[in-house]
User: Fold this.
Amino acid sequence: MYYTVKWNGDAVSMIDQRELPGRVVYRTYTNYHDVAASITDMVTRGAPAIGITAAMGIALAAKTLEATDAADLKTQLAAVCELFAKTRPTAVNLFWAIDRMKALIAANDSVDGIRAALEKEAVRILEDDVAMNKKIGANGAKYIADGDVVMTHCNAGALATGGYGTALGVIRAAVEAGKKIEVFACETRPYLQGARLTAWELQQDNIKVTLITDNMAGHFMRAGVIKKIVVGADRIAANGDAANKIGTYTHSVVAKAHGIPFYVAAPTSTLDPATETGDAIVIEERGIDEVAYIQGVQIAPEGIFIRNPAFDVTPAENITAIITEKGNVESPKGKGIRGLVGA
Assistant:
C-alpha cells in the first residue's frame, strides 16, 4: 500500500504526486526548506496533507536547527512557521496546523521540550487526520445509495490527506458498506489531479471509475447518469461557502439546475469561522505553465496571456450538505458552520 506522507524520525518522506500515475516515487527530505518546497512545488498537495506536511517540516526544523537555548530556538522557529505559511495561501488546514505547532513552541521552555513536543504533535496530526477521514466517510456514506453513479472533482482521497480521504472517504465507506457504486472522476484541468491521482487511487482499490473531461460533466448530469456529486474543500467560510479546486463551482451550478445532490466532505480543520463568506477567501493564482503545457507539451501559443486561479468558491446555497467528522450540516445556506465548529 502507498502512503501520502510519513515522519521518519529525522526526515519526512512523501509520495511524489507529480510522478503519478506513471511512476510511484517517494521523496525523503532531511532539510525543512525542502519540505516547504515540496508543498509549493506540488510534490504533495491536498488541504489536509499540506497541513500534515507543514507540521512535520516544523518538527524537522526544530530537530535540525542549532540553538543556544529555548529562546533562540523559538526565534528561529517563528521564521520557519512564516516560511511554511507562505507556501500556499488558500488551504486553511495549513494555518491550522501551523497554529497548533506555534502553541506548543510557546508552551515549552527548553530546547529538548520543544523538539519532543513538536515531533509528537506532527505524528498526532497525521493520526488524527486518518481517524477524522474515516468518521467523515461513515457520516457521508448514508447519502450514497446502492447503484449510484457518483461524480467527484480533483482529488480528495488518501493522496490529499493522511490516508483514506474526505470525498473519496465517503465513497470508500459506501463501498465498504456493500453498496455497488461507480465513480465518474473529472480530469480537473489544468493540473489533472482527477486523471492522474483520483483515477489511479480508485483503481488501486478496485473501485469502478470512469474518467471524463471537465466539460463532459454537464452532459452526463443532463442525461441522468450522475446521481450524486461529492467533493472536498480547502476552506469553508462561516456561512458555508466552500473553496475547492477550480471548476467545482461550475459543477455545483449545473448540479443545482438538474436537481442533483452536491456534497462537500472535509474535516473540521477546513472550517474557517473567522472568514465570514467565500468572497473573503484568498484564491491562489499559480504559474501559467500549468495551463500552457500538459506534461511538458506546449498547447498554447507563445506569449498568450493566461490566468490560472487554482480554486473557486461554491456558495452555500448550492451545497446539499457539508460532511465532517463531527457531523453534517444539511442545507448550509442560512445555517453556516459555526455550530459545527463548536460541537
Summary: The radius of gyration is 20 Å.
